[in-house]
Amino acid sequence: MKKAALAALLATTVIFAPWRVAEATNFLHGQRLYSLGDYPGAMVIWRDLALQGDARAQYSLAVMYQKGHGVTLDKVKAREWARRAADQDYEPGRRLFEQLQAGAKIAGGNKPRKPAGQLSELERTKAAVEDLLAQIGGKIARDGALHHGQLQAEKLDDAIQITIPDIMIQSSDGGAFELGDVLAHVRHVDQRYDDITLALPGEIRFRNSGGTSGRITIANRLAKLRWDRRVETSTEFEFRFGQITFLSDDNGELGRIAEILAQAQVVEAQELWTGPMAFSLTGLNMTNFEQAQLSVDSARVDLDLRGLDLHAYARNSASPGRNGTAGTAAMPPLETLLTMASGLGLRTRIAGLSWQSPAQGAFQLAAADYGVSLSSPDRKLLNLTLTARHDGLSGTGSAAPEAMVPRHMNVALNLSNLPIDTLVSVGVAAAVEVMLLGQVTSGQEVFNRLRRELSAAATVLRLKRADVAAQDYNIAFDFTLRADGAAKAGVVGGGNLRIAGLKKILGAFGIGEQPPLAALSKMGRPVTGGPGVSFAIAVRPDGQLTINGDAFTSLAPFQK
Fold first, then answer.
1. Are 145 and 170 in contact (CB under 8 A)?
2. Average pLDDT for 85-101
3. DSSP 366-387
4. More confident residue, 201 or 12
């Protein structure tokens, strides 16, 4: 899908360099305005700082001009501001400048494109492939670059053939993959769709940052997709590669993969897009130069889209910035992200993973299953479910799981009826206040609003189960908290916690002697017919947290 498979849109990292307090406050205030969609306000603040030499602000302006956010899209100005940030050794600015430079070189090698209405079928098809490559290159440019020669288009009897010569992918650490020439056969389906089949090479040359070189051979190759001209993206695709062999020029065979599969079947209904995407591999066996062996029977990631507004996603695509402010600044407003789709599911499955090393011993993961599900059928209330499970870890030598690492785990957490508007308007504002001032100055006002609005929405946080077992402890926990507008803590509810090995847990983290935790450990009741202690935990309407019926502490942040 456009620029990637909708994953981790909310992930951001901010690099803080020394600066004066007033400058930090101004910059982060601009960041807050940008996150709320006030681009002109952010521009006023960041431009002044950028002219004073603030590299973060210069980088953020570059992103604004790159994306046309609050200003006329201008790649020249974007490149200039990114260059200024790069000249100060600001890493995000350097990455963006290199990306924009690469884009300028590619664009400079092509003739200016005619208006869409004046393109011939051959030119239109070539332009579609150029756009597809630009999307792929934009994604890769976060960690490297995609290079290729001038595209050539040719009309065949039943298709248009596009030759993409000398494709090379470079990583940021100096590694490279040389694919050579790729042929794209484009068949015009109707007024909206094109079917594209790619003839991929059977051998790919590579070299890594350490200077090792070799080749990857692929016996079975299938690459096809359906290009949607209306939204300028691919919503259905299948890439299947089988019998893959990794060969080093100096060390012979490094490993094999039976099959790699990437597949999507996303379809439209009333201008909203729904369907599954899957990424999987089977039969992976790799050996490194120290003769350590990694084997995976199968691994799979499933993404389930429900009611995605693809046009909104296309309009609000995030910046490629990875480290620094533009990763935050270029994100679409949080409210837009949360209301783009009525649902999203993400699940990862791993089976039969093993690692064997002559120096470190052996490690095995029998199975794993991790999942996240977001749903918002009315685009007003958000439901979130998290699940995590693996059947067991085992190992020998230094590769064995540590005594505190869970060997068995089964967790299910559900948050239902969370008002999106409250999350955006209150949650973001509170987070910005904490970043700027280290505290929420309007704390009581924020708390009262949260208590009132979450209660009206009947928000519930429920840990259905948490069964965790390690060598030195095991835990069984469940609880339910319900928002309550009359409760002093804003919630009421409780649950049960059973722990065997509590002292070892507290000792491992060096917190066993802290007075509250020492008092807590003494409140446990022996488990009937089994090891460990149990705690009946409750949050009362008066805000008191009780353990086994005895008051422990108050959770009410404000007493009035």
1. yes
2. 83
3. EEEEEEEEEE-TTSSEEEEEEE
4. 201
